[in-house]
Design a protein that fits this description.
6 helices, elongated, single chain, 210 residues, two-stranded antiparallel ribbon, 2 domains
Length: 210
């Protein structure tokens, strides 16, 4: 039993103190622990600080992605370009059309995989970062699609004939729809952005919950 005068939260557990070798009687000792008000305040302050860090990190990354979705940002674009170029190589065995499409496809598949991975682990805060990266990837693909006729984007190799979506939309006989398709793909990216921001904000505030 907790000492009456203390009037503080306590918890107790029983442990074996000794065993009488003659009678076999077991003497039990009550182990008690108390948490002081100061310790409770420290824990609350630590939780509030961690909450602030989580929210700040999420907002900083979201602002970076939002900037990229309006204006091309070299670092984020460069990271997506790695997956884009790897996609061309990975899809090469499936024919020319799939090899060209594979760049944009793999660029979307990588962040989609990590979004699904963290979601299946019920780590929604981490999943929100992956989903924001997926939103940036959709934006990059959207800009590329919308440029199919104009050809104004700088390309690796510098040749106009290297434009993936010019080739793909000509093959699909949809070249005149490049800006329309790009607009819809950008909207998909926007949906992922706001869903990720809302989900990440909720779990940044309340912590990891299943």
């Amino acid at each position: 039993m907790c000492p009456e005068p203390a009037r503080r939260p306590c918890s107790g557990s029983l442990s074996i103190d000794s065993v009488d070798a003659t009678t076999g009687h077991v003497q039990l000792a009550l182990v008690q622990s108390w948490s002081s008000p100061a310790e409770g305040k420290s824990a609350a302050h630590a939780a509030a600080a961690m909450r602030g860090v989580r929210i700040a990190a999420l907002l900083a990354f979201a602002m970076w992605v939002a900037y990229y979705m309006r204006e091309t940002e070299p670092l984020l674009h460069g990271s997506l370009l790695i997956f884009h170029e790897a996609g061309h190589i990975l899809f090469m065995p499936f024919g020319e059309f799939m090899m060209v499409l594979g760049g944009s496809l793999f660029q979307l598949m990588v962040p989609a995989f990590f979004t699904a991975y963290f979601a299946l682990r019920r780590d929604w805060y981490a999943a929100s970062f992956a989903a924001l990266y997926l939103a940036a990837s959709f934006a990059g693909v959207a800009i590329y699609i919308a440029d199919a006729r104009a050809g104004e984007l700088p390309l690796l190799g510098g040749e106009r004939s290297n434009h993936d979506w010019t080739f793909l939309l000509i093959e699909l006989e949809m070249l005149e729809l490049d800006t329309t398709i790009g607009w819809y793909v950008m909207r998909i990216g926007g949906l992922f952005f706001w869903a990720a921001l809302a989900t990440g904000g909720y779990f940044a505030w309340y912590g990891r919950r299943t």
